[in-house]
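#structure-requests
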Amino acid sequence: MAGQGFVYGIAAAITCTIQLTGYAVAYSLKTETFYDILGGVNYLALALWSAIAGSIDAPLNWVDDPRKILVTILFICSRGWLLIFLAWRAHERKGDSRFDEVLGKGGGQPQPFGFFVFWMAQAFWVFLISLPMLFVNSSQVNKPGFSAFDIAFAILFCAGVLVEILADIQKALWVKRGRKGDFCTDGVWAVSRHPNYFGEIFQWWCLFAFSYSSSNNGYADPLWWVGILSPLFTMQILMTMEPTGLCNAEGKNLKRYYDKCPERYSKYRENTSILIPMIGYKYVPMFLKRTVFFDFEKYEYKPKSDGSVKNE
């Protein structure tokens, strides 16, 4: 019988195999070209594996279980888009500057362990993000119908994916047009400074909630609670870790805007939420911005010289 532990264990083994193989080949070639691509392929491999293995001895085959079909399709659509977008971006940029130091591209010594850390971080992210999908596909619970709760969070998941796709496309088109206006305010970027990150975080909270109906004992199911690592780890990566996410986009890296268009950018920050798309952000009290809206002080630009523009 393919129990949930077995499905999870093989999924972890698949992830380690893909990422370790990718690391070995990429380091031997001194390239990061297929780093993001293998991340996307890894997601799709886990979806395929869990769909097949989760049907063994299950009350319903995967093709007869609408809950498993839906979660797999939603997951593949989300990660499929990420794979396509990251592959296109890597081609357009002709590389990824995050890896320059560890690959010794600037004339320094290559850092094999530093490069290895990147690949292992991706392995953790892929596996942890996939937890709600793995939980649903490996569940033995027979609930073929959808509750209003399920439908609501499936719709909200789709909304998160759509926001991320719109943000990626609108930003890419803005760059193609020559970065008019110095910073992007097109479409969803007019109501969120980082709508792509919002979409990525929001969708995994929704999928975690959706997976609840596949639990054996409701809130007492420990394996369902493990799935909360999916949105939490996504928030950790995108909100606290360099050289990616908000830490890479905000703070000292805002200098180019304050040097070039300080007044316009200060107004944009004042009126625009850092993550959650909304209108009327300038009327939100600062203590709420610093807490529930995640606009923490560490994301502010703090110029070294007294004559520089300060943002608050």
